[in-house]
Design a protein that fits this description.
alpha+beta, 11 helices, elongated, two-stranded antiparallel sheet
């Protein structure tokens, strides 16, 4: 892990592997760090970045490294950069279609939680404690706490977006219907409505609105990188805050594809064959089948949004399919100010510079 100090969400997906930390910490507060903001004319090669808005900052993922940039209570920008596992991982099965989406989703959850912990520490919202040897300070957000946070988040999402819609649909539609698609369509619409209501509710919170503005800054800077523009506030500001590869668009695609995939499961025929008539037992089978199929749905959504749609945004069919997700981003992104764009630029430059340094090192070693 490298840490720098520079005077002064919801996220976009890319194809990366699970992160791992280096063993050392380097703290730099000199001119070298300030050059990230001063190098206005440097243009990076066009590439695909992923990212996420965090507390008072942005996390950016390049091909081999990821970085967090956030402002502290004094308004100064701090960065941390970490390596990602090589895209040439020996685990070839993780590169298979659909499976790679499941792996990427799990990686993004872990990486996003870790990035939030880093930004909370930088922003002064999380305490630190002395390391075992007293020489360094460590975040109280340990691996166990991060894992617990992910598990609790997933459990809450299951309750809100799987169990609750299924329960309401059972009350309205009954335990069985002649049309599986009709039952699942209503269930899907309930899920979308709950998701919309949830996002709308949290978007009314001032602190969350600020995170959403950093989300918009992240998207603008990613557009600048994708179009080969110099990473300046002026060049990034002209872009929109909506992005096809955004996690919000991905979640909407998950909900749409879930209607189709869940409709393929012959629940009625299964419970009839098994002689199950209890309403709650039938509901339980529906819920279990959804939980089992959820990784498949997520993998398919990844293939549609990231692998197929993202490179083909000029096609009419892609614009139609991605329209709902883009409209939802009107809630999850906001127009950032220049200071927010500046933070996103620092995060992008830190990750891209780390990639460049790693490539140069590998070339020298070769």
């Amino acid at each position: 892990m490298n840490s720098k100090h520079i005077p002064g969400d919801m996220g976009t997906a890319n194809d990366v592997d699970v992160s791992k930390d280096a063993d050392t910490v380097v703290d730099s507060t000199g001119p070298e760090s300030a050059q990230l903001l001063d190098s206005q004319e440097k243009i990076y090669p066009k590439t695909t970045l992923g990212g996420q808005a965090v507390l008072e900052g942005v996390m950016m993922r390049a091909k081999y490294n990821w970085a967090v940039a956030a402002r502290d209570e004094q308004g100064e920008i701090h960065t941390e950069v970490h390596p990602l596992k090589s895209a040439t991982s020996s685990k070839k099965w993780t590169k298979f279609p659909v499976i790679r989406g499941i792996v990427a989703l799990g990686s993004s959850l872990a990486l996003g939680t870790k990035a939030l912990a880093i930004s909370a520490r930088i922003a002064g919202l999380e305490e630190e404690e002395e390391g075992q040897e007293g020489g360094e300070r460590e975040s109280v957000m340990t691996g166990g706490v991060i894992a617990s946070s992910i598990v609790m988040g997933i459990a809450l999402a299951v309750v809100i977006f799987i169990l609750l819609p299924a329960f309401v649909t059972q009350l309205v539609m009954g335990p069985a219907t002649e049309s599986r698609f009709l039952w699942n369509a209503f269930d899907g619409l309930m899920r979308v409505a709950i998701f919309f209501g949830y996002v709308y509710a949290i978007s009314r919170i001032s602190d969350i609105r600020r995170v959403f503005r950093y989300h918009g800054a992240e998207h603008k800077v990613i557009y600048a990188v994708e179009n080969g523009d110099p990473l300046t506030v002026e060049s990034a500001r002209k872009y929109q805050t909506l992005h096809t590869r955004c996690g919000t668009a991905f979640l909407i695609m998950v909900m749409v594809l879930a209607i189709l995939v869940f409709s393929l499961v012959p629940i009625n025929a299964m419970v009839t064959a098994w002689g199950i008539t209890n309403t709650f037992a039938v509901l339980g089978i529906r819920i279990v089948s959804r939980l089992m199929l959820l990784p498949l749905v997520a993998g398919l959504a990844y293939e549609v949004t990231v692998k197929w749609a993202a490179p083909r945004t000029h096609l009419a069919i892609v614009k139609i399919l991605m329209w709902p997700g883009l409209q939802m981003q009107r809630l999850t992104t906001g127009e950032p100010d220049d200071d927010m764009i500046e933070v996103a630029i620092v995060a992008a430059k830190t990750a891209l510079d780390a990639d460049s340094a790693q490539a140069s090192s590998a070339a020298s070693a070769g």
